[in-house]
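ENCODED BACKBONE
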Amino acid sequence: MLAHYYDVNLKDRFDELFGRTDIGRNPTPLRNSFLVLTFDFSTVQAEAAG
Protein backbone atom coordinates (compact mmCIF):
# COMPACT_ATOMS: atom_id res chain seq x y z
CA MET A 1 0.00 0.00 0.00
CA LEU A 2 2.83 2.41 0.80
CA ALA A 3 4.38 1.79 -2.61
CA HIS A 4 1.13 2.80 -4.29
CA TYR A 5 0.80 5.89 -2.08
CA TYR A 6 4.31 7.22 -2.76
CA ASP A 7 4.89 6.03 -6.36
CA VAL A 8 4.99 8.93 -8.83
CA ASN A 9 3.94 6.54 -11.61
CA LEU A 10 0.54 6.04 -9.92
CA LYS A 11 -0.19 9.74 -9.48
CA ASP A 12 -3.09 9.63 -11.93
CA ARG A 13 -4.73 6.78 -9.97
CA PHE A 14 -4.48 8.36 -6.50
CA ASP A 15 -8.18 9.21 -6.21
CA GLU A 16 -9.17 5.76 -7.47
CA LEU A 17 -6.92 4.02 -4.95
CA PHE A 18 -7.21 6.28 -1.90
CA GLY A 19 -10.08 8.68 -2.54
CA ARG A 20 -12.49 7.10 -0.04
CA THR A 21 -9.93 6.70 2.73
CA ASP A 22 -8.86 9.16 5.40
CA ILE A 23 -5.39 9.51 3.83
CA GLY A 24 -7.04 10.12 0.47
CA ARG A 25 -9.09 12.96 1.88
CA ASN A 26 -6.10 14.39 3.79
CA PRO A 27 -2.98 13.51 1.77
CA THR A 28 0.54 14.37 2.87
CA PRO A 29 2.76 16.64 0.75
CA LEU A 30 4.94 13.66 -0.25
CA ARG A 31 2.19 11.59 -1.89
CA ASN A 32 3.16 10.30 -5.33
CA SER A 33 6.55 11.97 -5.23
CA PHE A 34 9.03 9.06 -5.37
CA LEU A 35 10.18 6.49 -7.87
CA VAL A 36 9.46 3.16 -6.19
CA LEU A 37 11.36 -0.06 -6.84
CA THR A 38 9.57 -3.27 -5.91
CA PHE A 39 11.52 -6.44 -5.15
CA ASP A 40 10.06 -9.92 -4.79
CA PHE A 41 12.39 -12.29 -2.95
CA SER A 42 9.83 -15.07 -2.63
CA THR A 43 11.45 -17.09 -5.42
CA VAL A 44 15.03 -16.81 -4.17
CA GLN A 45 16.51 -20.17 -3.14
CA ALA A 46 18.70 -19.69 -0.07
CA GLU A 47 21.10 -22.16 1.50
CA ALA A 48 22.31 -22.08 5.06
CA ALA A 49 25.92 -20.94 5.41
CA GLY A 50 28.26 -23.16 7.27
Observations:
- The chain has a mean pLDDT of 94.
- The chain has three helices and no strands.
- The longest helix spans residues 2-6.
- Residues 1-50 form one domain.
